[in-house]
Structure formats: C-alpha cells, structure tokens
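We treat protein structure as text, and this decision shapes the records that our systems exchange. Because each token names a local backbone shape, the row as a whole describes the fold. For reference, a complete record is included directly beneath this paragraph.
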Amino acid sequence: MADSKDAVEDFKVQTAKHPNATAAQMRPHAEQSRDRASKRLSSESNGTSNGGAGSSTPVELTALEESFRRFAIHGDTRATGKDMHGKNWSKLCKDCGVIDGKNVTLTDVDIVFSKVKKKSCRTITYDEFKAALGELARKKYKEKSGEDAEAEVFKLIEGKSPIIAGVTRAVASPTVSRLTDTTKFTGSHKERFDDAGRGKGKAGRVDVVDTSGYVSGYKHKGTYEKKIHKPM
C-alpha cells in the first residue's frame, strides 16, 4: 500500500511540472496522426517545411499555379502536384482551349513537352510548364508580342480544373427490351413476376404450402375470427 501511494504522489508531482506533456499523451493516437498530416499538407501547400529556411513566410500560390497543381494530380493518387506528366499536360491544353486545331495541335503540344522537359525525366516542373506555355503562346497568337501572347494563354488556364467526362449511357436495344419485358414471359418464368413487373421473390420460385386451413381461392379468409372476437 505504501508503494502505491508513493507512486500516485510521484505521478501528481510530474503532472504538475509538465501539464502539456501529460495532455499530449492522453490524446487519441488517431487525433495525433490527423494533426501531423494536416501540418504536413499545410507546409507543402505553403512551400514551407519544418526547420527549413523561410518557414515563417508562406508562399501564396497564383491562379496559374493552382490550375497546374489541379491538373498535375488528376487521375494519380500518388501525385504531389509539383510536377506534371505528358498525359495531363495534353489534357490541360485540350480542356483549357490552348489546342485550337489550327495554330496549335496535339502534335505541337507533345513536341513542346519533349522540348522543355529534362532528358532523364518523364514530367515537367512548374517553371518548365510556363516555358512550354510560352512556346505555344507564340504559335497560337502570332500577331501579338511574346509577353502579350503568354498573358493570353495564362488567362485561358487560370482558375480552371480538369473536365470530368460524363458516364456513358446505355443505348436502348429492341432485342434487350423484348427479352426484359415481363408481360411476354411464359411458363414458369411468368410466375416469378406480378402484374406490375416486380419480382415475387421466393414465392415466385418455390411452391409455398398454405397451412391456414382455407380452401384455395376462398375470398372470406379471416372473417370467422373477426366474428368470434367482436367487441362486446
């Protein structure tokens, strides 16, 4: 008993000295993990890291860079948004209207991508992305100066997100409609559906034995019990 009392007293002293440490230990593990993940995502989006230089000055993303990140992570759960592969680069140019089929084609987009990226890489960074847009801008807006052309292309992309294609609709087929029309079923298949075309479930597949004692087709089923148990 004396040892347990000493242990309790020692715990109280340690708690009084380090209240914050005790509170941190009492927090659920899942909550602590969520906090760590939110801090990491916040530091990545702000361009900062723990202990890194300039951690107290978060970088604000421009509308162009926001769009770059949205397209960079499209369709890839492991993407960080810091670089973009060729498939998403082509989708960005198509969805944002950079490709017009005349001055800028899909072939031009692929050639520019291969031109700006490093030879050993399969992706482009944000700076290389801007350089690629500059190449396409001069092709798309030949009558404008380089800076004006780039500004026009940037406007096409700023604030945009990947376009998600709609779900393909099933085409109605006369053959399928005929095979699924329950009013034309015959034999045992007809017994599995009611007049509205809804399935009867087990009753349509198995002969259920009626143990009520009434003759099949009797219309006044249950009326005898009601007569007997009439309220006085």
